[in-house]
Design brief:
Length: about 400
């Protein structure tokens, strides 16, 4: 009878297998796994197949066999392991999993640190930027590295982003006679040659090279570096964020980000979300980069391109804010409409009647529910002998909900 058991090997080698796992391996007719795992069973009498980089070969062999098969994996096969690939390519009802202790669990146990609040990142074959994006968004991270995205490369990227305030634990060759855990900081990782088998644990101790800002709505305008007058005013920003109705795990597009004030404030409201700040103007982009560093944003990615051309590469949004369109409002709204799901919101700030009319017309034709709020702001003039108010141009905050 055909069956496939995917069994985690754990850290302790042969001694780490449960009696149930050993019995299943003994009954198997086909044993697959990395060479080092197959060597744990020299007396296995059935067929052995070493798993290399070509996982398609493994799937083909499992599809072609009509016998009891066991796949040996490291730790938990469903934790950055082969389990995900097998489930995508084989009938799931044929597969049973027996997980074991992962290298990450073992590493945290060795340094006596709880791990339920950590983020887990695999840098294997992935873009280094994406891995570090996830690291800097969290205070505690466990990273599975590879030959290219090694601990030194990760440390270099963190330092380039001024995010070096982590205590680092380089955990190498766990469970073997060569096991070693070296404690350093991010900068110290640059000088360490890491063993190929390693887990990197990073625990934040402080924010490097950044001031501490308490997350509050309505950051004063003069805290931002910006092109003169090209910033969403503090009071308008608060109204805009309220109309966006952000939840913690949403994806937000900020198109025409300007100084980045909206996405910087939204970053505090989306601790588990993703924010993409799209800006075409080179001068504005430099200011955004400076502001992102200053306010220590975690989930904001700057897209240095022109909308709507660059939107195709972004994940689908839950919310969209449009602060500037560069004369391409209609094209941007059409691109947004194709990607926004039912119930999604678009908030647009307009300072001219032309933009207000064009946006209202588009949303009306596209079947959105539309609300327009006019925000008129006057502030007392600073350093004046008289309490006089200085008025700002009215802003039309357009909120459109896709029905």
């Amino acid at each position: 009878m055909k069956s496939i058991h995917v069994i985690g090997a754990g850290i302790a080698g042969h001694e780490g297998f449960t009696p149930q796992a050993l019995e299943l391996i003994d009954q198997a007719e086909l044993l697959l796994g990395a060479k080092r795992l197959l060597e744990l069973f020299p007396e296995f009498s059935g067929e052995k197949l070493a798993i290399g980089k070509n996982l398609a070969e493994v799937v083909a062999r499992l599809q072609g066999c009509d016998c009891r098969a066991v796949v040996l994996a490291s730790g938990d096969p469903l934790f950055f392991g082969i389990g995900r690939y097998l489930l995508r390519n084989l009938p799931e009802e044929l597969i049973e999993f027996l997980p074991n202790v992962t290298s990450v669990q073992y590493a945290f146990a060795k340094i006596r640190e709880p791990w339920d609040d950590a983020v887990f990142v695999s840098a294997h074959g992935r873009e280094l930027k994406d891995a570090v994006d996830r690291i800097v968004a969290n205070d505690k991270a466990a990273i599975l590295t590879d030959e290219v995205n090694n601990p030194a490369a990760i440390a270099r990227e963190l330092i380039n982003r001024h995010r070096g305030g982590y205590k680092a634990y380089l955990c190498e060759n766990l469970g073997t006679d060569e096991e070693r855990i070296r404690v350093t900081d991010v900068k110290g990782l640059l000088d360490l040659d890491a063993a190929p088998l390693n887990v990197l644990l990073l625990i934040k101790e402080y924010e490097a090279d950044t001031q501490q800002y308490v997350p509050t709505l309505g950051i004063p305008d003069d805290e931002f570096v910006s092109v003169k007058k090209l910033i969403t005013k503090e009071e308008v920003r608060v109204v805009t964020l309220a109309k966006l109705k952000l939840r913690h795990d949403m994806c937000l597009w900020d198109i025409g980000a300007g100084s980045g004030s909206i996405c910087i404030e939204a970053d505090h409201l989306l601790p588990n979300g993703r924010i993409f700040a799209v800006e075409r103007n080179e001068e504005c982009r430099q200011f955004i980069k400076e502001n992102l560093r200053k306010f220590n944003t975690r989930n904001v990615s700057l897209i240095e391109d022109v909308a709507p051309d660059c939107l195709e590469e972004l994940p689908d949004p839950d919310r969209v804010f449009i602060g500037g369109s560069g004369g391409k409002l209609w094209e941007i709204l059409e691109a947004v409409d194709q990607r926004l799901s039912s119930g999604g919101r678009v908030v647009l700030n307009a300072i001219t009647l032309d933009t207000l009319t064009a946006a209202n017309e588009y949303f009306g034709n596209a079947g959105y529910s539309v609300e327009v709020v006019t925000v008129n702001i006057s502030r007392t003039r600073p350093l004046s002998n008289y309490k006089m108010f200085e008025a700002y141009n009215p802003v039309y905050v357009i909120t459109a909900v896709k029905d």
